[in-house]
Amino acid sequence: MASHIGGYPRMGPKRELKFALESFWDGKTTAEDLKKVSADLRSDIWKQMSAAGIKYIPSNTFAYYDQVLDTTAMLGAVPPRYGWNSGEIGFDVYFSMARGNASVPAMEMTKWFDTNYHYIVPELGPEVKFSYASHKAVNEYKEAKALGVETVPVLVGPVSYLLLSKLAKGVDKSFDLLSLLPKILPIYKEVIAELKGAGATWIQFDEPLFVMDLEGHKLQAFSGAYAELESTLSGLNVLVETYFADVPAEAYKTLTSLKGVTAFGFDLIRGTKTIDLIKSGFPKDKYLFAGVVDGRNIWANDLAASLITLQSLEGVVGKDKLVVSTSCSLLHTAVDLVNETKLDAEIKSWLAFAAQKVVEVDALAKALAGQTNQSFFSANAEALSSRRSSPRVTNQSVQKAAADLKGSDHRRATEVTARLDAQQKKLNLPILPTTTIGSFPQTVELRRVRREYKAKKISEEDYVKAIKEEIKKVVDIQEDLDIDVLVHGEPERNDMVEYFGEQLSGFAFTANGWVQSYGSRCVKPPIIYGDVSRPKPMTVFWSSTAQSMTKRPMKGMLTGPVTILNWSFVRNDQPRHETCYQIALAIKDEVEDLEKGGIGVIQIDEAALREGLPLRKAEHSFYLDWAVHSFRITNCGVQDSTQIHTHMCYSHFNDIIHSIIDMDADVITIENSRSDEKLLSVFREGVKYGAGIGPGVYDIHSPRIPSTDEIADRVNKMLAVLEQNILWVNPDCGLKTRKYTEVKPALKNMVDAAKLIRSQLASAK
């Protein structure tokens, strides 16, 4: 029985690629150095899968930034501002598109479906001249072949690529991106022909858009595209892979009727309803790649249950046509449990990272072929039983408190306009108040202090002293810049979710459980294994300390319950909304303690609220109801004069703007500049927003420093659709990934722009 892995984590077990990328970007190493690190990682991964018995091993899943940007490079779809005209696209153009450079901004970045992974959004229109400009897919296939490993090259499918794109600036809104199919399919044909010539026998197209609610003409585009590719694909086995949700019935019919396709892959973890579609009709003599091992969470597979599912599918498609697979790429999981030497032994037995999932896939394939590893299956059953019965999972008082939430919508008693009046009397802010989102640069020295404290190499007294000095530095910088509402810079935090999870019960932490978010940015999601509560205050000391250093308002900085949930590996033994309510109650306790500690402005970040929106529209309402309710729970008990902020970033927000309004925050700061101010269009279309709002005025994910005039121009565009008395001026997101040499001039220009427009508004009266 065959086995397949959809993709694998790229950063390496010790984040080798992250450090190689950052060293290259800083000019400390060469392109050849970077290529060698990535080649070594690829080699290790391919050999590991081969040794584990995996038959269908992926290649071309190892991106330096993301797989959509790789496809943009392959198609030569480089926006004109980057100055590329022809030839193989190199790192200079590739990373300029991803990160920007000194003279031009980066392309938009957004979330990859409902994950915390990001991709660079292609900018397309009728004038784009496509050409075969990156041979990466073929080169990586040849690289694996030279190592003696036969792989399945993976390409982002042509229709999904176009549907994931956006119209380039200036392109008429009526332009249909799918009309570009005739222009990009010839390049796909070139790639396919080269892969065939290199000896490839299988090729995988990722077409995840099949799980979305698609109109008929979009489904027809899939049919037309693969009919056009059919003759070129002749002689190859072709897998079309879907993931992250059920495939709708109409899309299933289209998918399983595609010409030239020999295999179909489905996520049977998040798409359990697809099993019924398969059982009701699957095309004869086609392969089914059954995604029964979860590629997005870290819990050990229920091998016995998965085997039953596979056996039922075997009766439909036939023994020789069923392939055991992961539900999606393992990119979204941590690398290897072997690296977790300090993790609690009981909890560790409940988990499976990418390396363990490879073993699970192989074990299930062998069991399906009658070669069951009894000791492996028995150990798995024992671990599952241990998790179900462990007393550390359930806390009755937490369960009761969450159950008692029913019957109230937890809104603050006073309308937002009255609250803003009370807050202005207390805070006395100018119009267009300036602030930042929370974090300041995480310097090498700061990281060293945290690392040494964690390793018990320095005392708590020395640690507190060092963090206080860092906070004082950040406060002084903001006062010198004349920023109105300050932050303490979060020097005590490595990560906005990890920091809170470490102080909440029901969470476990890894030492090396890193997951790529974008580019070189990695996060280490906490593991929510049990009921959540807050044993003691988490941020009050640091926020109060920072407030004592200034007379200006100091924001208390918290991560909201929905973001903690969506950026964690969440327990799968109870509904996600129940876990979210538990986290909300814990954050509520912290909010009220901050208020008692003299903090008058409290930011509760919900950066990931949009990210968690289900992919199917029928499921939106239920999710938004409990997600928005969870946010309101956190701050329903504060006084009118306490100003509640929230922050959101790097997603498409226009379709949920009414839910954002329903959160009832006093001020929302939201990413705007990198997405070409797409957010403002919703206000141009008549949506009324009465609370404070700060659409970001510059992109913090690029080293580029915007000018005062550029920022002022952005603010003026905002004033065309928003009232001046509710508008805030702030960056897109936190500043932790930037350097002080970039942050200080950018913030100076931001403050100068706000002052310039204040004076213009005053003169106009």
From TrEMBL:
Domain Cobalamin-independent methionine synthase MetE N-terminal, residue spans: 3-316
Keyword Phosphoprotein: no
InterPro entries in the cross-refs: Cbl-indep_Met_Synth_N, Cobalamin-indep_Met_synthase, Met_Synth_C/arc, UROD/MetE-like_sf
Origin superkingdom: Eukaryota
Domain Cobalamin-independent methionine synthase MetE C-terminal/archaeal, first and last residues per copy: 432-755
UniProt keywords, alphabetically: Amino-acid biosynthesis, Metal-binding, Methionine biosynthesis, Methyltransferase, Transferase, Zinc
SUPFAM superfamilies associated with the record: UROD/MetE-like
Its EC number(s): 2.1.1.14
Similarity comment: Belongs to the vitamin-B12 independent methionine synthase family.
UniProt name for this protein: 5-methyltetrahydropteroyltriglutamate--homocysteine S-methyltransferase
Gene source species: Brassica cretica (Mustard)
